[in-house]
Amino acid sequence: MVISVLAMPLAFAGGAAAQANSITPTNIDDVAAGASADYQNVSFTVDIDQSESDEVIVDLSNATDADAEPFLSSVESSEENVSVSGDINNDDELVISVDASEDFAGGNVDITANLVHELADVDPVNGVEVGIENEDGSITDQVTFNVSGVDVEASNRAYEGQFIQALNGSSSGEDIELIRDPGDDDEFIDVEQADNDGFVFFDTEGLETGETYAFVNESGDTLGEIQLTANRYSAEWDEDEVDNAGDTTVDVELDANRGSYTVQVTADDLDSDEIFEIFEDSSDNAVESDDGVVLFDIRDGDFEADFDDIDAGDYDFEFDMVDTVATDSSSITVSEGEDGDLAFAEDSVTSRRVTLQKSKSIMSATLTKASSLLVASVTPATKPSSTSPRLKKTIASQLTSTPTSPVTKPERSSAVTTMLKSTSQTKTATTRLTSTVSLTSVTTT
Asked: Which burial class, exposed, middle or buried, applies to 181 when counting CB atoms under 10 A from its CB (0-12, 13-18, 19+)?
């Protein structure tokens, strides 16, 4: 679990039930000065007994006083039998409830609170104290973190929009000059006074990129140099359209001329819960922010987004590199998709329709064949080369009236019906009908 707080102390207090036996801080992250949003992990270990509950209160008032806006993304427990939950109240306090069940034997639990801070109006500051204590104040501890820029004594490159800073105790209270192209043009850019600890910083937004800048104290000593680099950054969806049911995933490609960086993703017409659900599985380093989702400490690559159940429409996503001036946007259309189960059911219905159609075709072919056999059965095997009108009349009379021949009209109908029942019977009927024709011919003769 991470308990994240900005330049602010943490004060932990127990609840009305039994208090924790101990609270030990284990980690607190620095955050980036001037960042539109940055992630902070604060972790601590709580020793709590079986079936006991307690509250840990984190005082965020120093953060809000410094114009930071903290947001609680999540709280987690290392023990499944110890539940935790948290909220930030109107007094700028993060209140974390810790509840151990009967199945927990008692002992240490690692708790992590994940915070996201909006720091656009916050300058660099060192040594922010975070106090930790239990309910009655018998357990106290303290950690510190920094709201940081890029240290010119430790790094050789910064990106436009980042703060650059130096800490040099021997320059306490001195005016520190920012010089472009030291040793050549030695162009004066700006001056700031170092604090009592010798800490000083400059904002790089608007400065010329591709140049080297130096911090120089009143004695002419160089405290450090750094190259300012222009941002090369892009964010682009791999596809222009995605469905909200069925196949609902699509990748967005992020590319920058940096090693690792942090990006906040926002979109008009979508709330932070929806944006977080879209990107929740894109990275292990995805946390919800007040406006969307923060992907922290990531590197270039493809990040999967899942638009399942998102309303159909056109969405413009902003991908903001939080600590620089770099930002990019990319649009995507969400279409009404077809649910996989529904599609399967429709395929089954279509299959049954095809089967039925095939059955009808086979039946039709069978009837056609039977009809052909019937016509063939009443046609003489050998057609006379010439038939007199008298003979034609006699044949017609024999087939349509009750003749003196051995075969009667009912017998002819029975023969036709028998023909439709089987091929062998049809052949028999054919023989009988042929005999009738022959007898008629003899009588006529």
From this structure: middle
